[in-house]
Amino acid sequence: MQKKWISHLTLSVISLFMVYPILWWVGAAFKSNEEIDSANIFPSQLMFSNFTEGWYAIPGYSFGHFFMNTFELILGVLFTTIISCSLVAFAFARLDFPLRNFWFSIVLVTLMLPSQITLVPQYDMFNAFGWVDTYLPFIVPHALAGGIGGSFFIFLLVQFIRGIPKELDEAAKMDGCSWFGIYWRIILPLMKPPLVTVAIYCFLWNWDDFLGHLIYLNSVENYTVGLALKMFVDANSAVPWGQLFAMSLLSIIPAVIIFFFAQRHIVEGVASTGLKG
Amino acid sequence: MKQLNESAIKEEKLSKQSLISKGKQKRKRWESPVAGYLFLSPWLIGFFLLTLYPMLLSLYFSFTNYSLLEAPEWIGMENYSNMLFNDSTFYKSLYITLLFVVISVPLKLVTALFMAIFLNQKLKYMSFYTTFIYLPSLIGTSVAVAILWRNLFGSDGLINQFLGIFGIQGTNWIANPDSALGTLILLVVWQFGSSMVVFLAGLKQISPELYEAASVDGASKTRQFISVTLPMLSPVILFNLVLQTIGSFQMFTQAFVITKGGPIQSTYMYALYLYERAFAGFQMGYASALAWVLLIIIGVFTALIFLSSKKWVFYEAKGGK
């Protein structure tokens, strides 16, 4: 009984220690610049102006614009990822074709490939296509089951499809269903849970793909939230920390909302990859 | 997980059954390769066009002088020899990156492992604690957190306020070349939650019977940890170790936003150096050579981990993996 009590105490202290910087951050977003250095979480006076002024801090564009940009990029990436990765995963998990195991091992190898190795030639290629300063350098690789996390998503989905009983396909096959029909009518509807996981990770990782955004997006018009924040820091010699914290706080809200609504999927996603490797 | 395993067994049985009906199998044989490659085609095109071809191209670029504007000019091994013999920044950034990887990865994994073991007990509100501890991992790689970190470790930041309570006079941790890398390491270790969740899932897979048997034999808690927990968890540890190592070698955003590689290049990570050579200096050939060296270094590290894993990773049954 007492042991339980000690566990609870220890865990509470650790949890507080882990989230204290975040709590302080939330407080700091409402603080005036004079008060910002205080370790106290609670501001003496709530400065909502941090949000209203921060929102328009970058001349010419509001943060709403950058949020819409980021959402636009990510919607394109999400849609293409779900289609392409599920198609490819279906092939690996259900169809029998020459060199299947070889290609699958290549998928696993690309999982470990550092992105720097293709950075320069990809930039060169996309530049030649006139895709720099558009969202195509992000969307096209995802449409080809690549991009950030592509191999990982294929792997995750293959593991899941392998767990779906094959009787279902066989029965559909008997009824004269084509391979695409099996994918579309049987496997895809059953794949909802792992696809949610894929969508969540795809969202989070692309939201934070700072290097990619930095390289390919060069006009403020097309900036994502991350780039806008970086610009906000660099533009001011005396950083208006209150406003900056307010805006950066807003920038993580989508991730936090997703986390609280889909916690189970995140944890399962992480867990399944670690166990079935 | 268990369900997945069970259905995998089912699947095996089924495929055996279907082997019996060979006639049907034969009809499938000819139509399925075409369908297979059709379904595979997005990935296959992507692999050739966006991975293999750029990789070979970057290998070629690494032997050239290339600024994007003019055609690449072949200079043989010059990039590599310059890197090895004339480029002190290369060595500096490599050293810093190695230091970062060698310190942060074990620290993160050990913290994650112990927290996972601690969280793996039957208590109320466990998922509540897990959520809080996981939260930093969720947002950790964003620009927003990098900005937060820059302030926390500044001269008047939260950390110094906290140290002040104990009468310790802190410096500006980020402006100090001796501590700047440390703040980045702390930032990464703070995000041990994702590894912890993987360990936690691994711990739940270990059969309680093993612990019962161990305690019947009189094994202490420490002994149980060494003889049951660690071996059973070793495949998961290997997985985490490989992915964390590869990821840490490529650390970019935090170094770029928090310290910009400074002060006096004390946090000049390899990926940052490569980025600046490519997109600030437009030395694409040199940057490609840097990328290939990085690939080789990561490859060597990964190979060493896998080779050593034969000694310390325990697989329950050969068929189990």
From TrEMBL, chain A:
It is a multi-pass membrane protein. GO terms for cellular component: plasma membrane. Pfam families: BPD_transp_1. Residues 67-262 form the ABC transmembrane type-1 domain. Keywords: Cell membrane, Membrane, Transmembrane, Transmembrane helix, Transport. InterPro entries: MetI-like, MetI-like_sf. CDD domains: TM_PBP2 (cd06261). GO terms for biological process: transmembrane transport. The chain crosses the membrane at residues 9-30, 73-95, 102-119, 139-161, 182-207, 241-262. It is found in: Cell membrane. Coiled coil: none annotated. Its main location: membrane. Belongs to the binding-protein-dependent transport system permease family. This is Carbohydrate ABC transporter membrane protein 2, CUT1 family. It comes from Domibacillus enclensis.
UniProtKB/TrEMBL annotation, chain B:
The chain crosses the membrane at residues 34-56, 94-119, 131-149, 180-203, 224-243, 289-308. It holds the Pfam family BPD_transp_1. InterPro entries: ABC_transporter_permease (IPR051393), MetI-like (IPR000515), MetI-like_sf (IPR035906). Residues 94-305 form the ABC transmembrane type-1 domain. Its main location: membrane. One of its GO terms (biological process) is transmembrane transport. It is a multi-pass membrane protein. One of its GO terms (cellular component) is plasma membrane. Gene3D superfamilies: MetI-like. CDD domains: TM_PBP2. It comes from the Bacteria. It is found in: Cell membrane. Keywords: Cell membrane, Membrane, Transmembrane, Transmembrane helix, Transport. Belongs to the binding-protein-dependent transport system permease family. This is ABC transporter permease. It comes from Domibacillus enclensis. The lineage of its organism: Bacteria, Bacillati, Bacillota, Bacilli, Bacillales.
